[in-house]
Write a structure and sequence with these properties.
27% strand, glycogen metabolism
């Protein structure tokens, strides 16, 4: 019989609709981060660094490139004969076949996978946060307090608290109450969406709630267990944690990597972040190139000027191009004379000669004002922007656009061009 003390279930099936055109062709956990990584690299690296060698990755939305990235788990030392990493998409059964309809429903549909390892504990993780966390310390806290469930919490600024699921605890950190995105918060302890369950408790709760529509941990499972008297503890996490679920948060988290003393350090020897790396030549900086305060990926050629930006691998920045405060992802070409300010440009895009991104005064986006905000220009994967156009702020562009798409050579602030 195979027996594991703790296994991880990593929820990576979300669309990430708040990232707009960045996730039109791929799942949010597969979005690039820091010029080299994918968002899912962080929880996967946390698992192996914490001694967890059995991870189920639950995929659903646009899974192809996420599956290709994870493969058999070699970069994270998760290519094991027993355990390792297993991709778990929804699958057809003899009855009750369904897509994953909620976080807990997704875990319930993989009961057989968990049963196989006879775990004492199961840790539930999200695939869309940037952080380093030793799950072993959280497990020690769980055992020491004789908890049935432990959830990780993070103290958020009071002004942001209403955006989160919050917990109210006693002086020993035992959970007394829950508040789901309250208008007037009584606590700033936000749930991080990381849960350790005793296996028997999780199994019983999922069985009892299996008919609950859209069954979710925060909305259904945790409150159900609380009501029936299961001891639930809050593990207060003190390190860096960033939910990169919005374009502004995603841009900010990338920009924090290039601070003089970065708040989140990618270079620590004792807690490495692992990823699948392609074999690429080194970066090339021409004699006239000017680069300051940047991360620059392998295989990138720079002939222009770049400041305070995160540049992926295989990018070409031609002479006379000027980039500042931006994220440029793998394989993008920035033509001569282009000017890019505060933009996120996804993979394999082309920015035409003398095009200007981030011009004009800000105006709210007319298409999706809650998504395309913060003064950003967001360009989707494989897009083409023609030469000599001026593009404003809070703009989304996806597709191979031509000069005819820009009346008088302009796309005003708040406008969008969406070509799928």
């Amino acid at each position: 019989m195979i027996k594991k003390e703790m296994i991880a279930m990593l929820l990576a099936g979300g669309q990430g609709s708040r990232l707009g055109v960045l996730t039109s062709k791929l799942a949010k956990p597969a979005v690039a981060f820091g010029g080299k990584y994918k968002i899912i690299d962080f929880p996967l690296s946390n698992c192996i660094n914490s001694g967890i060698d059995t991870v189920g990755v639950l995929t659903q939305y646009q899974p192809l490139r996420l599956n290709q990235h994870i493969g058999i788990g070699i970069p994270w030392d998760l290519d094991r004969n027993i355990g390792g990493v297993t991709i778990l998409p929804p699958y057809e059964r003899s009855e009750n076949t369904d897509w994953y309809t909620g976080t807990a429903n997704a875990i319930y549909q993989n009961m057989e996978f968990m049963e196989y390892y006879h775990p004492d504990y199961v840790i539930i993780l999200g695939g869309d946060h940037i952080y380093k966390m030793d799950y072993e310390l959280m497990l020690e806290f769980h055992k020491k307090n004789d908890a049935k469930i432990t959830l990780a919490t993070y103290e958020v600024p009071w002004e942001d608290a209403s955006r989160f699921g919050l917990v109210i605890t006693d002086e020993n950190n035992q959970v007394l109450e829950f508040e789901e995105k309250p208008a007037e918060p009584r606590s700033n302890k936000a749930s991080m969406g990381i849960y350790i369950f005793n296996w028997d408790v999780l199994k019983d709760a999922l069985e009892r709630l299996k008919n609950q529509s859209g069954c979710d941990f925060g909305m259904h499972v945790i409150p159900y267990c609380h009501e029936r008297g299961d001891k639930i503890m809050a593990y207060n996490y003190q390190g860096y944690w960033k939910d990169v679920g919005t374009l502004s948060a995603y841009w900010e988290a990338n920009m924090e990597l290039i601070d003089i003393i970065p708040e989140f350090n990618l270079y620590e020897e004792f807690w490495r972040i692992y990823t699948k790396s392609e074999v690429l030549p080194p970066q090339y900086f021409s004699e006239n190139a000017k680069v300051s305060g940047c991360i620059v990926g392998e295989g990138t050629e720079i002939y222009g000027e770049i400041y305070n930006s995160v540049i992926g691998s295989g990018v070409t920045v031609e002479e006379g191009a000027f980039i500042t405060n931006s994220i440029i992802m793998n394989g993008t070409v920035v033509k001569a004379g282009a000017r890019i300010e505060k933009s996120i440009i996804a993979e394999d895009s082309e920015i035409g000669e003398n095009a200007e991104l981030g011009a004009f005064e800000e105006a709210p986006n007319k298409f999706k004002p809650n998504i395309y905000s913060g003064g950003l220009v967001t360009v989707g994967e494989g897009s083409v922007i023609p030469a000599n156009v001026k593009i404003g702020k809070n703009v989304a562009i996806v597709g191979k656009t031509t000069a005819e798409d820009y009346p008088n050579g302009i796309l005003a602030s708040g406008e969008s061009i969406i070509r799928q």
